[in-house]
Amino acid sequence: MTQPVFGLQFLLQSESNLLPAFGDFSVLGVALPSDDANATIFPLDTPVDINTGDQTILAAMGTGDLYKWALRVNKQLEDLQRSARAVVVRVAEGADEDETISNIIGDPAAGTGLYALLNAPTILGVTPRITGAPGHTGSTKFGISSPVTITAPGTGYTSATVAFDPVGAAGTVTVSGGAVTAINLTNPGDYADGTTVTATITGDGTGATATPTLARLANPICAVLPTINEALMAHSIVGGPGTTKTEAIAWHQTLNSKTLIPVDNWEIVKRIDGEEGNEYVDGASAAMGVAVRVDFLHEGLPFWSFANQPVQGLLGLKRPDSFSIIDGATTGQELLAAGIGITQLGDRSDTSLTDTGWQLICYKNASSDPTWELLNKSRGRDFIHHSLIKSIRRHLGRENIGRHSVQAVLNDMGALNSFLASKECIFPEWRVGFSAADNTIAGLRACRFTVYEKAEQPAPILLVTVKSGLYAPALAAELSALNSELQSVL
To answer: Which pLDDT tens digit goes with each residue over 65-77?
Structure first.
């Protein structure tokens, strides 16, 4: 028995309302090859927590894509910023690009490639929030789209097979009631754009036919990143093909996720492998560095876009796009309208974004929902949700449901919103509360209740319309003044 039966005891009390708890939403996360990297520091398919400006780390990266990515990130950081924090996964270079992409994606069961990033919070205690695989997200192929149209089901089938011509795609056939009801693709194939592909169904029945349709397939990395990002509350900056405007827009049409931030701004940079000349690199690497800089300039709060931000260390662009801030009929404006971030060179013209230097214009994600298509709104909402998790979890199990405990939860939510409003991350008018309509007796009895949080995040200034016109009252005032002065003179 440790408590006295006669005397005093002292119990240290904690504040019931604690300050909001925030996470670091500027941590980068990539999976990239670099075969000559130090295998001890960067073992294959293993998440490693690094600072990109650490000279020992840079020396251990070798000369592959991983090293090139880190250099482009570091060149974008703000004054006095020496490094970005990152979780990197080194993967093996494939015999060709398809194999490299496969290695970057990895295996969800084995936790390799990009899926290794999911292990970072547990293994390293750090969560990547800006992810990607620059240089490998812009390629797309043409294959058979699913589902394959059954034009005639046929009769008398107990089993059937399908063959595609030209050879490439593969699939299995579903038979029900003697008829072919579906073709299940196991491989969409790889065909040149415009190829006519036919399907032939054979089996013990007759009359079944199908018509395959060729379509552009999403980049495999872009296809898996949303699942990984949703688990991490992360966003990916993904680079496009870097070829033509038409190809970039077609690539963007294969994307549909608020966690993907598309850019198409391949850069010309000086080679770093000792060889003479220059090379092309995906501008997504620089955009990731710009993202870290923008967050740094706003105290780590991810509520601002990456638009109108300088880009350093490039010699030029693989595809310079025409651009004007007052003319929408330019390539740059058309790419922005399609939701694709770009990099532009400033000049002395009155219609450029800046007088000199390169500027990144990036403010949209690839969401099909206009409510969340601005990247600062989707990133900011993730930040709010993460902070609410950190705050509300402190009440779980420790307190019983009642007026004071529910009010304590609301107080924590209010403290978060008050802070964000003071930093102009949300508008000053916001609401948190408890609504009887959202709660029931059964719910309270089952240990649960519902509260609400409503706040509006500001959108970036994208377009300013100036109504320019004449002002007749000024002439009337001038006429009155002239009349008065001339009358006095006379």
So the answer is: 999 999 999 999 9
